[in-house]
Amino acid sequence: MAEFAWHILEPKLGTYDFDLFDRAIAILGRHGIDTIMCTPTATPPRWLTAAHPEILRVDGKGRPMSHGSRQHCDTASPVFREYSKRITRAMAEHYRGNPFVVGWQTDNELNTSMPESFSKATLTEFQTFLADKYREIAKLNAAWGGDFWATAYDSFDQVVLPIEFGPTFPSPGHLQDYHRFLAFSTARFQHDQVEILRAVKPSWFVFHNLGGLRDIDFRGQFSKDLDFVGYDIYPMLYDEFQRLGNHAKVQALHLDICRGFSGNYIVPEQQSGFGSQPGFCTLTPEPGELRRMALSSVAHGADGLMFFRWRPAHFGAEIYWMGIIDHDDIGRHRYEEAKRFANEMTALQPKILGTFVRMDVGIAGSDFDNQEAHKTYPIGLPSPQDDAILLHQHCYDRGIACGFIHPEDDLSRLKLFYVPHWVMWKDEWTDKLEAFAVSGGTVIIGARTGTRNEDNHVIRETAPGTALSKLTGVRVEDFGRLAAPGANGLFDVMERSGGLVIPPNKPAESNRRQRRFKIGNREMTAGHFYENLTIDPDVEVIAIWSNRYAEGQPMATSRKIGKGQVVYLGTYLTPELTEALTERLFAPAGVEPLVGGLPEGVEVTMRMNDERRLLFVQNYMDQAVTVGGVPAGRDLLDGEKKVTGRLELQGYGCAIVELEG
Fold first, then answer.
1. Residue 593, pLDDT above cutoff 90
2. Between 360 and which of 310, 333, 401, 653 could a Cys-Cys bridge form, CB atoms 3.0 to 4.6 Å apart?
3. Residue 132 above 90 pLDDT?
4. What residues are annotated to the active site?
5. CATH code, residues 361-589
6. What pLDDT is stored for residue 112 in this prediction?
7. 513 assigned to a ligand binding site
8. CATH number of 602-659
9. pLDDT at 486
10. Domain 1-117+172-226 annotated CATH 3.40.50.1970
């Protein structure tokens, strides 16, 4: 409550009015409803932006953002930080004795609208950040490769912000540090508020609701300051952008990525209906889908959930972002579904809380530096996450427990772990992979992994670096790009050569240079990138290049390590390669579906602990379906009805089966 209400709480500088929220909190409290307050710093009042226009964000073209929207102020600005602390302190002091205020959300979806800023305040703070990090300008010049294109500096106050195409590209090290600074600045802005809230009343819980994941380092101060993390979930909105085929699949992907950052979480905003802003709109959940989408959030790790929102607004830029009840204050099927879901989760709370989401297949994720390293030098290749989606979706479609996890975390529950082209690599992670393999795990390491250091420099050793080469028994002798699968060239556009336009239906040079490979008896086309490998004598070749000059050379390898193996993959995933690899590697690793013979349109996941296993089965189609091969147990959503192998689900129907044994 109050996340966008700064102008109401402080209508003019130093004058506070809490009456509206005091009355609302009291009414809710009388009906047994506690309140989570929110710092209103995503929308500062006009009197503040008018008095201090220097706090506005500035885009890469030098244009200041305008009042009249949200997140238009620069979280790096010392002036804005001071005013944000003032309103946070005033609210905290006012509500410290209110028994119905139980916790706080910081700001709202930090960095979702625009994480970057190129303001004077950002520049000054960036320079200070760099001075604290490097201490000596010579060290910064070395880290950024200042001898290339005369980009060295004589002092920190000479450093500029990395404008894209100004007129060409900045150093990858420069860009990497800029985004590290944005993450630092975001965490510092939130820390200001958390510090005040905890000092005023330590018993309050504090969290943040993330709408996007840009320029936030979850393994740093940002998450350490919080009691737990919240993720806002809008499945039909994401599907408009990611186009993975259906919003259930997109929701599962988004949730699994988020859980990789923080473990279990809450959902402060769960989509409940049609959503829109003036420039777009989403599909509308059909009857039954609101409940199913909410259950999917729980199935993928949510320990709490709130719907967005109670009723839609009648004015503003989200007038058609629908809620539990409609504009006419009438509750229809969405209200009934939300009530049913709430009753079900209240009843099952003792069984669900304390469980974690099962993962048999883990994908390396939630590493800030590797996310940013790709963005600094993408060269048309898929990001690590884009590549990982192919494996995640393969597992999702087959009911295999899959998720994202950082290599620093506990890998012991996994059976297989995939590293999707992390160019920045730490030797201690290699030790973790080796220990995992020694214990019987299967590790897959993607091409280009370990090829840059923390300054974004290409390493001086033969790829993939000393530690990974020792683990895999592989060295990269040569590499190059390939066309994306089905593309007419890397960027799938008409190419120009000597002023001549090559028509789209004429094979481009890149297509004439397609690389093919054989894995087992199957031959297929590689996509995006290739590596030519040399191997140690104890390394098994599991795939070879099958055409052009590399014919017969290793493309993928396996090396036995203890009870397990380490696989090296000298290319990027394609759907065909993903299927071939999983056919070869999953069964020996003990990876199998949670439910055998899963029909199309059904999602299965499992939450578990040492005491219980809860199998979530969801039909995300509008037609009834029969699910076979379900392990014996009792359906907790159907009066604990016994399940013995078959489960009947109506359209958008769900079951939570507590398994026997």
1. yes
2. 401
3. yes
4. 109, 269
5. 3.40.50.880
6. 92
7. no
8. 2.60.40.1180
9. 73
10. no
